[in-house]
Structures are given as C-alpha cells and as structure tokens.
Amino acid sequence: MPNIIIKIPTDVLDAGPQQRLVDGVVAAAAAAEQIPDNPKNRFLCWTIVEQVAAGHWAVGGQDVTSSYIPILMQVFVPAGVLNEAGRAIYAKRMHQAATAALSTEKRRILMSCIFQEVDDGTWAVDGTLWRLPDFSRYGGYAHLQHLVSRS
Predict the structure, then answer these.
(1) Separation of alpha carbons 130 and 122, rounded Å
(2) Residue 5: how many CA atoms within 13 Å on its side-chain side?
(3) Which terminus of the chain has fewer Cβ atoms in its 10 Å neighbourhood, N or C?
(4) CB 77 within 8 A of CB 89
(5) CA 124 from chain center: how many Å?
(6) pLDDT tens, 73-88?
(7) Tell me: the pLDDT tens digits for 34-81?
(8) pTM
(9) CATH-assigned architecture of domain 3-150
C-alpha cells in the first residue's frame, strides 16, 4: 500500500500521458511490493501527481526545464515491505513508467526517487493505526502472507 507523490513541471503532462504515468507507477508498485493483480488490493495504491509551476523548480540552482524534465517521486511504504531488491525493481520500473509516458518528449528526463519506509504502527488508515500484518492482509503482499495467518 504505497502512497506515491510525483512532482513534475507544469504543462509537461496532458491527460493521456498523465494516466500512462499513473498506470505505469501503479504497475511498478505492484511488481516491487508483490501486490496481486486485483482491483481490491491495488485500490490501496494512492498516487498524486503534483505539477510544479515554472520557476519553482531548480536543479543546481537553475531552472533547467527548457532542456530537461525533472521528476521527483516520493514513495511512502510500510516498513518491512521492501528489501534492496524490491527498491531496485521499483526504481527501474518507475523510471521506465516516466520515460514511456513522456516518449514523445524531446527534453531529457532527470528523475529522483526517494523511498520512505513508514515505521510499523505509525500509519493510520481511516482513523485506525495499521501494522504490517494489516497492510499485508489488505495489500495482498505475496511475500508477507505468513504475517496474515499469524494475526
């Protein structure tokens, strides 16, 4: 159950490429977190695309958006869901999702992806604190189903 925030310069994505980006990011999350191809499980994958106005994004202290498209992705995931291999899958597939969504773009894509693991018992869902077995039950993480049977 990731929460993914994507920051991208304004006017880079129209509706079609934005949906392709979101679909690709959800597919990346599912692959990395081992979430089943089930709408009920994937409903817990929240994605926000935030467009950053021109002049509000600096790379090396400069606005580089005439030559580059900077993209920042922040992935909040329950601690214990990802290992290093999972993070590597995530990073690769998130970059692939961005390049596929922007396949007609002439500018080079610069992407930073930050994984933030949320400590067990510090993530609330609808007013209730969830722990890793709860996330495993509702997210369907294939590699963590042993936690569901114990809870």
Answers:
(1) 8
(2) 9
(3) C
(4) no
(5) 19
(6) 999 999 999 999 999 9
(7) 999 999 999 999 999 999 998 899 999 999 999 999 999 999 999 999
(8) 0.91
(9) 2-Layer Sandwich (3.30)
- The three-point CA angle 84-98-110 to 5° equals 80
Q: Tokens standing for 37?
A: 């191809």
- Alpha-carbon span 102 to 108, nearest angstrom: 10
Spatial distance between the Cα atoms of 39 and 68, rounded to a whole number of angstroms: 35
Alpha-carbon torsion (23, 27, 32, 38), positive or negative: positive
- Nearest residue to 73 via CA among 26, 143, 14, 39: 26
Q: How far apart are CA 64 and CA 49, in angstroms?
A: 20
How many beta carbons lie within 10 A of that of residue 60, not counting itself? 5
Return the domain boundaries, the chain.
3-150
Q: Percentages helix, strand, coil for the chain, rounded to the nearest 5?
A: 40, 30, 30
